[in-house]
Amino acid sequence: MIWPLLYALLTWIALPFALLYHGYRSVSRGRKSAFGERFGTLAPSAAAALQGGPVIWLHAVSVGEVMAARPLLKGLRQRYPDYRLLLTVTTETGRVVAERDGLADAVTYFPFDIGPAVRRLLNSVSPRAIIIMETEIWPVFSLEVQRRGIPLLLANGRISQRSFPRYQRFAWFFKPVLERFVGLGMQSEADLQRILSIGAPVERTRVLGNLKYDISFGPVDWPERCQLRQQYCIPQQCSVLVVGSTHPGEELLLLDAWRNLLTSLPELLLVLVPRHPERVAEVEQLLNTRGISVVRRSQQDLSSQQLRGGQVLLVDTVGELLRLYTLADLTFVGGSLVPTGGHNLLEPASRGIPLLFGPYMDNFAEITTLVLDYGAGVQVADQRELQEVALEFLITPELRQVVGTNGLKLLRDRGGAVGRHLDMLSEVLPP
């Protein structure tokens, strides 16, 4: 077939633009470019950490996939104690979270999908099995893995309703790649049917559930909440609304809703967490132009000054969202008031914190349905409904308690995906 050659040619043509993009991001953020890793060179420290045992390689693109991979990495550690774990990522924020967690023996960037880069990293690692999180489909990588006889598995696979037509349109491209996987574990029956329709092998594809349900969960006790609020300089008398993973166009709607709530709740503090840290300056400017008192999270370490109601804590750090949800009275999960597709609702639910979210949840349709069925959160249509529902929650502790408890019940009932994924791996890699 001609398409593999065409893909390889287009990849090489796009490579200079990818290098410019990564170079610009590195310089603008004051970080190392890590071009060597993206061309398949393993850092000496990572290579040393993988010595002494066979390797299982798990790939997670960004923060969301790394968070979902946490329970699977813990399960791999328990079932394969003699193995070393390599975790690869694509984004800088994903790497920050992966290295902070310390759940893998080594963390590096996934190589560019070109032959020399892929072969270089495979030669260095020689993994016994490779697990790809969600729907990362790389033709050159998968072909090289197949040639070496390395089992390649898809974990927590999903294809959203919004992206499905694009996959269908290019089924001729994806089908040969999907056939290289020895096992494909999908999140739901809908995901299963979608990936089968674009060419996944029926006999190797199954529903294993969503790994995100296997996160640790438990209610927040009063001493823990008080301690967290003290760490973030938040007075105990403040009500706290935490808004996580926001996108362009969404902050303005949320700020207007929050300012309207202040008329009834003057001690309401807003914690605002943009999805992408590089947007913090843009969001801060938006706050300043509207005359809102704002404190950056990174500047709190330089001062112990207490926050107060009517202020915004703007989070410009990575990996703190779960802790911030934990100290909240009420949470809103962003990417859902604008047509972005939403974000994971389970983090606030895992700590028994009530959650709100908007109408655009296409990327998390299954989780959204479960949250609504369990009564673990409320979906609002727009800004006006958001402020009405938020006010009801903030002035009714009993309502917050009931909805938060429902979230804990959801996670208790829906776990088990880790064990099913490990069983799939065990079919090709006995413990």
Highlighted features:
431 residues, Rossmann fold, seven-stranded parallel sheet
Question: Can I get a quick summary?
Answer:
With 431 residues, the protein is of the alpha/beta class.
Structure write-up:
There is one protein chain. The longest helix has 27 residues, at 3-29. By secondary structure, the chain is an alpha/beta fold. Helix 12 packs across helix 17. It is globular and about 65 Å long. The chain has helices at 3-29, 35-38, 44-49, 63-79, 92-101, 115-125, 139-147, 164-169, 171-178, 189-197, 222-231, 250-262, 280-289, 321-326, 346-350, 365-374, 383-394, 397-414, 417-426; strands at 55-59, 84-89, 106-109, 129-133, 152-157, 183-186, 205-207, 239-246, 268-274, 294-296, 312-314, 330-333, 355-357, 377-379. The model has no long low-confidence stretch (mean pLDDT 93). The chain has a seven-stranded parallel beta sheet with strand order 3-2-1-4-5-6-7, sandwiched between helices. Strands 10-11-9-8-12-13-14 form a seven-stranded parallel beta sheet.
What is the distance, rounded to the nearest whole angstrom, between the alpha carbons of the first and last residues?
A: 38 Å
Strand order across the largest sheet: 3-2-1-4-5-6-7
Biggest β-sheet strands, sense, barrel? 7 strands, parallel
* CATH architecture title of the largest domain: 3-Layer(aba) Sandwich
Q: What would the average pLDDT be, to the nearest integer?
A: 93
Percentage of residues assigned to helices: 40-55%
What general outline do the C-alpha atoms trace? globular
- According to CATH, the fold-level topology of the largest domain is Rossmann fold
Give the number of domains. Answer: 2
Low-confidence stretches: none
- Going by helix content, strand content and strand pairing, the class is alpha/beta
What is the subunit organization of this protein? single chain
